[in-house]
Amino acid sequence: MALNRDGSSTLFSASMAGTLRLIVYLALACVLMVIDHRNGWLAKARYGASVVIEPLYRLAGLPAEGVDAARVAFADRTKLSDENQRLREALLLANARLNRMRAVAQQNARLKQLLDTQHSLGMNVQLARLIDVDLGPYRNRVVLNVGQREGVKAGQVVIDAHGVMGQVIQVMPHTCVAMLITDPNSAVPVTVERTGLRTVAYGTRGGSELSLPTIPVTADVKVGDKLVTSGLGGGFPQGFPVGTVRRVSPDLSGMFLSARAAPAAALERSGDVLLLRDLAPPMGPPAPAPQVGPPADLAPGADTNDAHKQGASH
Amino acid sequence: MFWATLILALLLMLLPLPAAIAPFKPYWPALVLIYWALESGDRVNLGLAFMIGLGADVVDGVLLGEQALRLTALVFIVLRFRSRLRFFPMWQQALAVLALLLNDRILQLAVRAFASEPLPTWGYWISPLVGALLWPFVFLVLDNLRARWRLHET
User: Fold this and answer.
1) CATH number of the domain located at residue range(s) A76-276 in this protein
2) Which among B21, B25, B44, B64 is the top mutation candidate for probing chain A, defined by the most A β-carbons within 10 Å of its own β-carbon?
3) Where are the domains of chain A?
4) Whether pLDDT at A304 is above 50
């Protein structure tokens, strides 16, 4: 800096000015990144810019949609394809119900007293379509064609006919972005259906598998075990299929077993998905139990104590 | 025309590819910006690169400022060596583009490391190669478009 100041103006040439500008812009970008990383400005900026972004998404999704449409048109008559669509939606819902039913039934057999009235099997869902847009490689995120105007909230769980797909993380007026369970930043609390072992399924770098890095060495986990959501932590409701264990091996430290699982949902192939309307119950301890026993005003208060005392004195 | 190509580049960035060839997708905004920086350097400056990067960030929805940083650095290098790069034969230019894109990837890796995001797999390094291989075609197509546009305007 000192060199610039006392040096002649030839030093401060056009290229120097260019370098300075570069530094300013780079610094600006760094500041933006830090602020965004800390405060999540990007979500707000995206919401504001959704007027531009959403048409862009639709436009970019058009070719994929066109290919899809062409395939249907060439394969079948419109009437048939309409019916097919309707049936597919019905099947999706039925399958999802069935899956959940099975898990709950198994749980029922094992833990009868825990299966309370709070587990209703009715699901409040909303059908959504994927907009086929590439949000950058190595990030397993998808764009859905419903948004805030359709009542979508961040945190809603996305499922398909076979299991949990992910969770909504950003909502715009007419679209939303969901993070798949195979995203490296994703973690789903699961239980092993056969044994009831609780653990957490993380996404992986490659993004096609789930990783369960912290299973106790003594735990009973086998290849082929089904994983369902445990409902712990409040992010995902209980009892939805998550995946199937593919490999089990001791981890590097030898302290844990680490397993790999294939996701149950057809993450690569699903076009129609379901959004669970009901958010999972919020995190935290359960509400304090109501006071049991007779109402306070009916309860025998001071006089019984007196009676006891009298009895004791006798 | 100028803006159309830039918006097209953003669209191409969003365009989904079959999963098998998705890692091979080149970084379109960089290629288009390199072209314009080489051929019409007065229209491209650091501010423009920054704005395009911000736009890409908002669309991409990952980290605000990441692509702005990368594209600004990229355009700066191109503009600095513009007079030399312009008169390179095509294959040398493609090599230069490869170096630029690799540098871009390294920058991205640094940013991700700082943001404590998971590091990518080896497929991450293929995209610059594809970008460099495509560069002659991108260059010719854009050159052709520009020539036609000029003819159309006059």
Assistant:
1) 2.40.10.340
2) B64
3) 76-276
4) no
